[in-house]
Design a protein that fits this description.
This protein is of the alpha/beta class. The protein has helices spanning 80-88, 93-111, 130-133, 137-157, 176-193, 210-219, 231-244, 254-260, 271-280, 308-317, 331-335, 348-361, 371-403, 406-413, 421-431, 442-458, 464-481, 489-496; strands at 7-8, 28-31, 39-44, 58-63, 68-73, 77-79, 118-119, 200-205, 223-227, 248-250, 263-267, 295-298, 321-328, 340-345, 364-369. It folds into 3 domains: 1-123, Roll (SH3 type barrels); 179-369, 3-Layer(aba) Sandwich (Rossmann fold), CATH 3.40.50.720; 382-496, N-(1-d-carboxylethyl)-l-norvaline Dehydrogenase, domain 2 (Orthogonal Bundle), CATH 1.10.1040.10. Helix 13 crosses helix 15 (421-431) and helix 13 packs across helix 16. The longest helix has 33 residues, at 371-403.
Length: 497
């Protein structure tokens, strides 16, 4: 499924007897489907496998960024240039990203009439049969997961044979229908092999993963209470819970969340925030028993290795269960429930009681062992990724400054023996200037690099490459890129070069 070849398009006139403006194949347009705004798109030649259920005249449309197809009524297909200003004004970031992809294809088509627009192939939905409905519950659940995973895999690995441009997964799911259907399918099958926890689940949201975690817990039917310093995050989560008709409440402090919940997920973005949370939950007060009998799941990814055992001791004194759950994946993978959790600590009892919560957050939870071993493994993996990214970005900057032909390099990048999906997605983000769409942030990346350096100092190890990588990230933050995705290292190094 992952190696499906690209479908290529050639300009063919598509005649539509209509009073509306007539478009031909490869015309760039704004198209709208029910429930969504006008979206940057292109007109395609109808696929033989696609069935137009509407009796009204329609165009077969491909939506950029979303990688989705739909038959769209001619009334809802508008010329691109004439409506660009109107539809881009105040648009969402997802539409802006899709528009950049359209512009890129438009420029190439203008300069090369033989250029072929690369799209992800249309896959017709399978018809339901009695045999499929009679499958066992376990196999049905596995099938749902497999289909959803393969869709995401295709979206993230397809590469244009003409331009060599890596296609990354839809940001925040500008393919909302597909993601929504997958989530609803998960929620239907989850109760068949995972008992839904009826306990109130608390969540503290301060980093790029927290909001997605809250949404997925709500999607799967959990009762959730939340604290976040961001009013915008709280408002979005309230609206989301209302759309799902699910219990959700925002509290004014982490302490109130802890009072009302049995299990607490913590997503902090800085060491200062984490220290403040520990204080508010009463870990530094011997007379405060707020955490007694509760489970605390640390998902902040900025835990200092040299303070782990002190925190573990405090949690044990409070009779609280302290679990590490480190996210392995980008923000988008976590949104899509396609990430993996590395688990450490007193997990067995917590998993029995709250299995549905971990099922809602990730496709897999891998138990590593003790809390500190889990954090160390996570630090090593994040350090390796940071060093890979820094090396890649330096090479891209050198290519751009010396040859002014970055696209020539990226055309063959996917064929290089060291290529992997992580690097490919970052190259794609750099080419399409998605620096403001944060998939990985500087805070958590540098926290892991600092942990590695602290360990090397403790054991008198020479980790010069790690230290140099940390300096590269630090310089980018000081240059004003702290709130952007880590691929903005490219801009930082270009400025310094």
């Amino acid at each position: 499924m992952n190696n499906i070849p690209l479908k290529t398009l050639k300009i063919v006139c598509l005649k539509m007897p209509s009073k509306e403006k007539t478009f031909k194949v490869n015309d760039f347009v704004w198209a709208k489907v029910a429930g969504y705004p006008y979206w940057p798109a292109v007109v395609l030649k109808p696929n033989p496998l696609s069935v137009c259920k509407s009796k009204k005249e329609s165009y077969w449309i491909y939506f950029f960024g979303a990688n989705n197809y739909a038959w769209v009524n001619v009334k809802f297909v508008k010329p691109y240039e004439e409506n660009k200003k109107k539809f881009l004004e105040g648009c969402s970031e997802n539409i802006s990203v899709a528009n950049k992809e359209l512009i890129s294809n438009k420029k190439r088509l203008a300069s090369d009439p033989n250029y072929e627009i690369a799209v992800i192939p249309f896959i017709a939905k399978e018809k339901k049969t009695r045999a499929k409905r009679s499958r066992s519950r376990a196999s049905s659940a596995a099938s749902v997961r497999s289909r959803s995973s393969s869709v995401r895999s295709r979206a993230s690995s397809v590469v244009s044979t003409k331009s060599g441009k890596v296609r990354s997964v839809c940001l925040d799911g500008p393919s909302p229908k597909r993601i929504r259907e997958a989530i609803e399918s998960y929620s239907k099958v989850s109760t068949k092999h995972v008992d839904l926890s009826t306990a109130t689940i608390g969540i503290l949201v301060c980093n790029i993963y927290g909001e997605a975690a809250a949404r997925n817990l709500i999607n799967f039917g959990h009762n959730v209470v939340c604290w976040s310093p961001s009013r915008a995050v709280c408002k979005r989560l309230v609206l989301h819970s209302q759309s799902k008709n699910q219990y959700f409440k925002v509290y004014g402090s982490p302490r109130h969340v802890a009072e009302e919940s049995s299990l607490i997920f913590s997503f902090m973005s800085t060491e200062k925030e984490l220290s403040s949370i520990y204080t508010e939950l009463g870990l530094n007060d011997s007379n405060n028993n707020l955490m007694s009998g509760k489970a605390y799941i640390e998902m902040s990814q900025i835990v200092k290795l040299d303070s782990i055992f002190e925190t573990i001791g405090k949690m044990q004194t409070k009779d609280a269960r302290y679990i590490a759950a480190m996210v392995q994946g980008t923000r988008q993978e976590f949104i899509d429930r396609d990430a993996v959790l590395l688990i450490g600590g007193d997990f067995e009892e917590v998993m029995r009681e709250f299995k549905s919560c971990f099922f809602a957050l990730a496709k897999e939870s891998r138990y590593i062992g003790t809390f500190d071993k889990t954090i160390k493994l996570h630090v090593v993996q994040k350090t390796i990724k940071a060093m890979m990214l820094a090396s890649l970005v330096e090479s891209l900057v050198a290519v751009e400054l010396k040859t002014q032909n970055l696209e020539l390099f990226t055309k063959y990048f996917e064929k290089m023996d060291f290529y992997n999906e992580y690097l490919g997605n970052n190259v794609d983000a750099i080419l399409n200037k998605r620096f403001n769409v944060v998939q990985e942030d500087y805070n958590t990346t540098q926290a892991c690099l600092r942990n590695s350096i602290a360990t090397s100092n403790k054991w008198s190890l020479s980790m010069t490459h790690t230290a140099r990588t940390n300096n590269i990230f630090q310089n980018a933050r000081l240059s004003g890129f702290e709130g952007k995705d880590v691929c903005s290292l490219y801009l930082s190094l270009c400025d310094s070069g």
